[in-house]
From TrEMBL:
Transmembrane segments: none annotated. It comes from the Bacteria. This is Peptidase M16. It holds the Pfam family Peptidase_M16_C. Residues 1-35 form the signal peptide. The keyword Protease applies. It is an enzyme of class 3 (hydrolase). Keywords: Hydrolase, Metalloprotease, Protease, Signal. Its EC number is 3.4.24.-. Residues 221-392, 664-844 form the Peptidase M16 C-terminal domain.
Length: 914
């Protein structure tokens, strides 16, 4: 972010993000439970209609394809998710990445739909599409306008029945997938998880994760992939889930017409996964993180196990902020402490983590964590935390319908990973869990004799380490050099560009104290979500010498209120149950009947934080320790180099909190900052879900109406900036093999200028459209210079910027930059072609409804517009501009506002070749 630097508060919060990233480096099946032990007499009201078998249309076609159709009226959008019940666990010995390679090749064309047509259709759909490979299931998902469902189903049917799988295509794709391996091997988190999986699942098909290895890809042939495809990719080994604004009956008929002629297959015998708990072992790894991590991993049940619900509740209790593990944080023994459960289908593991400052001894947090887990193993956990976890897990299911793609994922996971009849079966599974069952499982699982401990130690980058890249120029889809003739069925559905229609607008009002309230009613579930933000610019509002006071203030909101201490407040949230965060950005999620209770607690936390003296001292020290590591981390130095390259030296965003400035802050400084920066007249609240505008306004007026602004509103608008000039900088990153490259410049306009719509449209042609973009075609498909490339605009109220981002091997950084310059200047010298403009318009216009296919995205969109002081119908205005725009107008906008020769070049990683 070049307009506002990540504050130390965001650094502190990012500790959790880093922790979760550790689990994001491998394919993990979801946290769902098995329902064999359903509690008799379960109240049907606890099962959300969107997750109940009674509320969906389902069938098994004669060829064995299982189909589940779930109506959801949130937006005119549909998601298809087809789950092939095969993954890396079934690959031949010595070829761990076969399933992953085949996933890539599914985007390389099939009989009746070549790769260029598939790419063009994907762009014209304007939606999102992707795939993932796990050990047990490979998933392919599309989200697009509901009217385009026939196109989505046709794509999947053609891929199921006749994949091309040519040797020439595999030769190109091999390079791309090997680059993916190289990228992940540059990640300390991935290297850790790879070793961990090899230890915990030794001797089983889970011993190697689904990514694969370069040596195995080098010896893999298209014939090998075809053999795997022919064995496993059949309708009787697939589950198709369709969710969205559709008619279930006619949709089922459409599925039958599209897939019925595909023959079933005789499936091979599946491999057994029966891991044996390993003996205790210790790993040590160096990382480029700003903080270190002490971790303990334990074998746990898989997601299809009868013990899964109990294991999931145990995980919730261990990660609870009311639990003994998290209590290491307020005690000052860890910067972060928690527990994560990573289940695969047949087995899983649990991971306890404690973060420590860069340069500190890891033995302290490691021993403290071991002591907590050992006490739990021997004495059990509080029964009230078990009951709270059960209540929250069951209540959380009610939110499932609030995202079209999320609901499709929940159904897919239940059917493909959990072997459940429906996700609603989870309610019975959670209800059946007892405190004794949780304690018995803790005593069995948290055994130090089978724990894999690891220390992830931050290490300064110093001199960059160069490594050989793996070449390759393709991933998923190519971009053709000439217009593509679509198949007739796709041409008929997608060729015509429809004039955009206005989007219904939310209810907008202003509370008595100046809070702007935006309400978007939606009754797809009996839940309500609230998102709020206070316009704040710490770089302008923090006193000189007190940099970091904003971060410290933010961090202290989780330490209770003047009415409830930290534990009592967390208990009050659990009792509702409510999911709440307070601070400059705040949020709340509750069931409909509990909205008023939840808002009262949110207001209590937001308006009456305790900022306890004892906790203040601990948190201040932790924040200073974390910031010391953050300031020397490659990621921070990269962000700082970008800002230094295009912003004036005196720009407020160049300010950095330091350990010294943080330690100089007093509790009175925090109180004064809070009183001056938390103001209702700078606050916007968005409420989405099962509520009327009138009800929302009444509840929020009652809870927040007493909050009054004191004195004149502060200036929170960053100053305008001059047009930047070209420069070059390199930031070493010892852990990187490939370079991350940013080309950036400031602009002479903001999003208030209508020309920004023309720039957005042109950028879709240039680099925003990914597979359909010129940069992707010229930098990846034609030359193989880069692994990834994109371009984007960054808008603020007072400034704008343009950036191009790519990843490249060190010897190709300069060559790739030359291509960027050539393509940018080409945008200025001639209009986009008619085909390019048509594709870009289709992509942007058809993608607009997708932004309304999630209540969370709706709220985020309105908060973004409020932050930029843009009208709430800005998307409609953009749609009209895109629809009417000519190529000459796009060319003129790029010629007027973009300055290729002024782009600054900032590189992170090995020393590049120019």
């Amino acid at each position: 972010m070049i307009f506002r630097k990540p504050s130390a508060a965001r650094t502190r919060f990012s500790l959790l993000a880093i922790t979760l990233a550790l689990l994001g480096g491998t394919a993990l099946s979801p946290t769902l439970a098995h329902a064999q032990d359903a509690a008799p007499g379960m109240p049907s009201a606890l099962v959300p209609p969107s997750l109940s078998s009674a509320q969906v249309v389902r069938a098994t076609l004669p060829n064995g394809l299982k189909v589940v159709i779930v109506p959801n009226r949130l937006a005119p959008v549909v998601t298809t998710e087809i789950n092939y019940l095969v993954g890396s666990a079934e690959v031949p010995d010595g070829f761990p990445g076969t399933a992953h390679a085949l996933e890539h090749m599914m985007f390389r064309g099939s009989k009746g739909l070549d790769k260029d047509q598939l790419a063009a259709i994907g762009t014209r759909l304007g939606g999102s599409y992707n795939a993932d490979t796990t050990e047990d299931v490979t998933q392919y998902f599309y989200t697009a306008q509901a009217q385009d469902l026939p196109v989505l189903l046709k794509i999947e049917a053609l891929r199921m029945n006749g994949l091309t799988l040519s040797e020439a295509d595999w030769e190109k794709e091999r390079g791309a997938i090997e680059q993916e391996v190289a990228r992940d091997l540059s990640s300390p988190a991935y290297r850790y998880l790879e070793q961990l999986q090899g230890i915990l699942f030794a001797g089983t098909p889970y011993e190697h994760d689904a990514l694969g290895t370069r040596p195995s890809f080098d010896k893999t042939t298209a014939a090998d992939l075809r053999d795997f495809y022919q064995k496993w990719y059949g309708p009787n080994n697939a589950v198709l889930v369709i969710v969205g604004d559709i008619n279930p009956v006619s949709t089922l008929q459409l599925v039958q017409d599209t897939f019925a002629d595909i023959p079933r297959k005789d499936l091979p015998q599946r491999h057994k996964v029966t891991p044996v708990a390993p003996p205790a072992k210790t790993l040590t790894l160096s990382t480029d993180y700003p903080v270190g991590f002490a971790t303990l991993a334990f074998p746990m049940a898989g997601s299809s196990s009868a013990d899964f619900a109990t294991a999931d509740i145990l995980s919730d209790v261990l990660s609870s902020q009311r639990g003994a593990l998290y209590d290491l944080v307020p005690q000052g023994k860890a910067l972060y402490a928690g527990f994560e459960y990573a289940p695969k289908k047949e087995a899983g593991f649990g991971l306890a983590l404690a973060a420590f400052p860069k340069g500190a001894d890891a033995s302290g947090p490691m021993n403290a964590m071991k002591a907590v887990l050992e006490k739990i193993r021997k004495e059990g956990v509080p029964a009230e935390l078990v009951e709270a976890a059960k209540q929250k897990e069951i209540a959380q299911l009610q939110f499932s319908a609030n995202s079209v793609s999320g609901l499709a994922s929940i159904w897919s996971n239940a059917l493909a990973f959990q072997n459940l009849d429906s996700p609603g079966d989870l309610v019975a599974a959670y209800q059946a869990v007892t405190p004794q069952a949780v304690n018995d499982l803790a005593a069995k699982l948290l055994d130090p004799a089978h724990a894999v401990s690891a220390i992830l130690t931050p290490e300064a980058s110093g001199k960059a380490v160069s490594g050989k890249g793996f070449g390759g120029a393709e991933s998923f889809a190519t971009t053709p050099d000439k217009p593509v003739k679509l198949p007739q069925w796709a041409e008929k559905a997608l060729a015509k560009l429809e004039e955009p229609k206005p989007t219904p607008q939310p209810a907008v009002s202003t509370l008595s104290n100046g809070i702007k309230l935006i309400v978007w009613p939606s009754h797809v579930s009996h839940t309500i979500q609230l998102s709020g933000q206070i316009r704040q610019t710490p770089e302008l509002q923090e006193p000189k010498g007190k940099e970091g006071v904003h971060s410290l203030t933010e961090a202290l909101f989780s330490y209770g209120t003047t009415q409830h201490d930290r534990l009592a407040f967390q208990k009050a949230l659990d009792d509702v149950p409510a999911w709440e965060d307070a601070g400059g950005n705040f949020s709340l999620q509750v069931l409909t009947p509990d909205f008023e209770k939840g808002v009262d607690l949110l207001a209590e936390n937001e308006l009456h934080p305790a900022f306890p003296e004892k906790d203040f001292t601990v948190v201040r020290t932790q924040l200073a320790q974390a910031q010391a590591g953050e300031l020397v981390s490659p990621g921070h130095l990269f962000d700082k180099a970008i800002k230094a390259a295009i912003l004036p030296e005196t720009d407020p965003t160049q300010r950095d909190a330091t350990p010294e400035s943080i330690m100089s802050i007093t509790r009175d400084d925090v109180l004064h900052y809070y009183q001056s920066a938390w103001r209702p007249d700078l606050t916007t609240i968005v409420v989405t879900g099962d509520i009327s505008p009138e009800k929302a306004q009444a509840v929020l007026e009652k809870a927040f109406g007493s909050w009054k602004a004191e004195g004149a509103a502060p200036n929170v608008n960053l100053p305008t900036v001059p047009l930047s000039k070209t420069s070059r900088a390199t930031v070493p990153d010892k852990s990187s093999v490939q370079n991350d490259v940013v080309l950036a410049e400031t602009l002479g306009l903001t999003a208030q200028n209508p020309d920004h719509f023309l720039l957005q449209l042109g950028n879709e042609v240039l680099g925003g459209g990914l597979f359909s973009s010129r940069l992707y075609r010229d930098m990846r498909v034609k030359t193989g210079y880069v692994y990834s490339v994109s371009s984007s605009f960054d808008w603020g109220r007072t400034r704008g910027a343009y950036t191009v981002n790519y990843g490249a091997d060190p010897d190709k950084v300069g060559k790739a930059q030359s291509v960027v310059m050539k393509d940018l200047k080409a945008m200025q010298s001639a209009p986009p072609t008619a085909e390019e403009l048509s594709l870009a318009k289709a992509s942007l216009l058809r993608s607009l409804p997708l932004a309304r296919a999630s209540l969370g995205r709706i709220a985020a969109q309105y908060l973004y517009l409020a932050d930029l002081d843009l009208p709430l119908d800005n998307a409609d205005r953009g749609a009209k501009a895109y629809y009417k725009a000519t190529g000459a107008e796009v060319q003129a906008a790029f010629r007027k506002w973009i300055r290729p020769d002024d782009l600054a070049v900032i590189v992170k990683g090995p020393t590049p070749t120019w």
